[in-house]
User: Fold these one by one.
Assistant:
Number 1:
Amino acid sequence: MIGSLAFFLIKPAKSKDIFVYVVDSKKCIGCGSCVKACRAENHVPERKYRTWVERYVVTSNGELENIFVESPNGGEFGFGDLDVDENEILRAYFVPKLCMHCDKPPCVKVCPVNATWITEEGVVLIDKSHCIGCKYCIQACPYGARYFNHHEKVVDKCTWCYHRIMRGMRPACVTVCPTGARMFGKLQDEHIQKTLRERNIRILKPELNTRPKVFYENVGWEVW
Amino acid sequence: MKHVRRALVVFINILIILIVVIFGIKGLGEEVYPAIADKLFGVEGIYGTSGEQKEIIKKPVHAEGREYCSKCHEEIYRKSDQGKHNFDCQTCHGAASDHPKMRLKVDSSREFCLGCHKATIGRDNETIRVLHNWENHGKDRVCTACHDPHHPWFD
């Protein structure tokens, strides 16, 4: 009884200005400048990605839909041609992926040494000096956002460029996006509120109840 | 009968206490770190949450915004601001980490421009002006021979 009472009385102190990230899939052209900028900003090792771009191509030749997903080199050097008939394509679009910075992060839950935690701004961070590199969190993450840094022997992930956003700047990927497909801001910001009121906004894997803070606009059901 | 009832009451009491304890501990939270229990007992910081958070903030910024470039290259900044190429300078020029010391290189080949402007499956015509006959349009010439990269379309 006391425990339950304590839970209702002392709720976790959440700061009101949590950060959210909105991706408009329609505006993404798959140029890969975000992946390059992320690599330059955060010294991401080769063949590892904190953010990457996927291409979804849904085709149909009179039958039910076939879904083809690809991400060559994380989309860093753009996308090539495909061997599909143009008339068979139902819909095709690019989907930038990154850490969802879940409100209930499974990766934080499984860490045996509490080396990863969620900050007041809602950003999930890793203490590199405390991580033992057991990679449990890589397995726990349903979005595949974490990778193992072989140089530092620790797990690493997107931090939404925590050092930038705390200085009032935007993350590197948002800064360089030429078409404005990536949007970043506090939940109360006007441009974020405007997009969050749209109807076709969705999150990825809602059935897992991880409550991600990355929202997607104009993506089909097949994005997973 | 009385003994059985008494034993039953005791048993149910123990059960209630157990359930309350289980839910109480769950309520205090092991879901995420730092949880309420950690905050109550002041564990925050032992594993370096407060310390490491400050360390991460101190990391140097490698890619500053457009306004940083405009301090020196104001003419180009104003020119690009009027056209469609009004996005960030680093999208093409790369991160300006120690730029005044090191020269920034920009790829002026056809392939670099076509990286965005080539007609590709999935690329939306309304978002970007895609070039459908990219093989023949301005053949064997670089794009910058005719188009100004900072203000590429003719009025």
Note: Residues 3 and 9 of chain A are 10 Å apart (CA to CA).
Number 2:
Amino acid sequence: MEEAVSQSIILSSVDKLVAWGRKNSIWPFHFGLSCCFVEMATSMTPKYDLARFGAEVIRGTPREADVMIIAGTVFVKMAPVIKRLHEQMMEPRWIISMGSCANSGGMYDIYSVVQGVDKFMPVDVYVTGCPPRPDAFMEGLLLLRDSVGKEKRPLSWTIGEQGVLKPAKISMKEQKRAQRKEMTTLRPPDEI
Amino acid sequence: MIPDLLAALRSRFGNDIVEPETTRDETPTFWTPQGKVLDLLIYLKTGLSQPFSMMYDLTAHDMRAYKKDLNGHSRFDFQLVYHLFSFERNAFLRLKVGLEGEYPSHPTATHIWPSLNWYEREVYDMFGIRFEGHPRLRRILMPSNWEGHPLRKEHPARATEMGPFRLWDEKQDAEQKALQFDPAEWGLQTQSEDSDFLFLNIGPQHPGTHGVLRVILQLDGEEIVDAIPEIGFHHRGAEKMGERQSWHTYIPYTDRIDYLGGVMNNLAYLLAVEKLAGITVPPRAQTIRVMLCELFRIASHLVWYGTFAQDVGQLSPVFYMFTDREKVFSIVEAITGGRMHPNWFRIGGVAQDLPAGWDGLVRQFIEYFPRKLKEYDKMVMRNSIFKARTKGIGIFTLQEAIEWGVTGPGLRACGLEWDMRKKRPYSGYENFDFEVPVASHGDCYDRAVVRVEEMRQSLRIIDQCLKNMPEGPYKSSHPLTTPPIKKHTMQDIETLINHFLNVSWGPVIPPGEAMSCIEATKGWNGYYLLSDGNTSPYRVRVRAPSFAHMQMLPYISRGYTVADLLSILGAMDFVLADVDR
């Protein structure tokens, strides 16, 4: 009896349970701007298989989605549309900025491109690359997943303190520096 | 051919109306005064034997800052350049018109070629040149409330020169309001005799549009009465970018124009640069280029194949096809180090030699892939639902295709066996044995048939590259090759200087103009470059196939249903970056 109980009962607080649920079912919005979107779509195909992290359920409408991935260049003509789409998403909602263009304009310092989506929207995770490989995008998603699990949100607007407490953003460049410094022998480009 | 053509035109219009110019790419080029250009265009299209039936491109140059001699011709403030193509002659023709004044105007030619509609709007949007008599002259790429015309020399290029971007609430509302569609503005009726029309907005954010494209449909029930594509949401200023990058550092920007075509874009650009510079590319470099281009053709067609099947309701093929695309990318990555945008071709060759063991990877793929293609035939092409959704849908005839500037698989699906790799071979394609697949009905299904068969032919070409890869250098020894072959630089002063200058300032390409035209994944892709003998181009014109194809959308979707529109879009195989550049 005791054994059966210990296998089927988990003791947790409600907010931790909700956070656990949230972090394991982050549904992305079907939204793409340019080249990066192709790599994002690739991450859902069998070789990469985003379904392992509960994030393969692409939603066609912003009202059903949890995360908006700004996959591509943010064009001046497109910016008001992006903002409107973001406003239509329900809380809790997150944004991943995917690729150099969305991060900072990247190589497109040109009249028709906004120099980074964070000029008019909050960003939770930045993924580098032009375009980032599907693996890099997935690393970004996992970072978001961790951070969502640690977020503190009120269970309702009458219970507890209001406001969202997000964990501080971490710099992967700093974190990986030691490991990268150890990489002294790289595979030469003249062999496969 | 140029003397014959010149004689024919001069005998009809008089000596001072047609003035020939010699250009570096040896395309027949004629100057004509503004008043005569329409007569000349009509004659070239309909009066001439072996006419120039396709309007390939129209663009303009802002010449006010051009300081070099123009080969004896007088300099105008602006010049308009028409590019025509004749299938009978297998030749391009370039017609130039000089315009004077700050904001000149010019008569429209949309009644001669309907395809000029968007090209004239683009020239107006980018240069502020007005076309008198144009049915709807308004901006096409930039937002309607944009100030200035980006490709004029006084317009700033960098976003960082124009002040930080802000989007406050009132601006957001104003922008959203500007996006509202008003049927009257487009001259559309809101009702017919017996029914009210519904205006349906699709995009710029919609899963079926493959990117940021907006289409507004005028519907009578489920039937499309008219469609208005609105583009420009993906305009990345690729042409203006060319005017500030060096000839060498512009290469990565080309990768991102048809972003599924990868290095094939590099090739289109470099062929034009090499024509200007007079560089002959060694056979090994040519063959490496061909092999990578064909690998990218397969990768691009696989994306199209999967997403097209998905558009018409088959969810699983895309998963198989993206898996195979990863196989192509594993080869691309082993050779170039990159995936989608390897940026791997260089002026005069490629970035480096093939790595040891490349042949094993390619051989594996050649053995593996035909079996999969057969499987996909069963899965997609012979599927009855797929056939029902695509056969007899979105039909255009060969005549219409030429009229609207359709190129590539869309043209071949109308029965014309025209492939630039065969008809005007470049980069050594004349040495390869392959067939040009054609189909006859010109509907969505036939466009699919052509592309599927093209993958098999690409595989044949790759197989021939594998078996006959020439030995020799992977870069030309021409001094303008960038960067020059490194092994010489530490030994003699001449190549050391070349290396230093070409890498730090970039190569100085001699003044002149040249155009390239290749059979890219989507159709004919061409770069038309104008050099004033500097380290960066004076003007880069990117003629992208998807722009012309997208313009035809209303014409081929009228009378079909909304569901058919997605088949038509899917079969078109466009990339928004290729439409808007």
Note: Residues 218 and 225 of chain B are 5 Å apart (CA to CA).
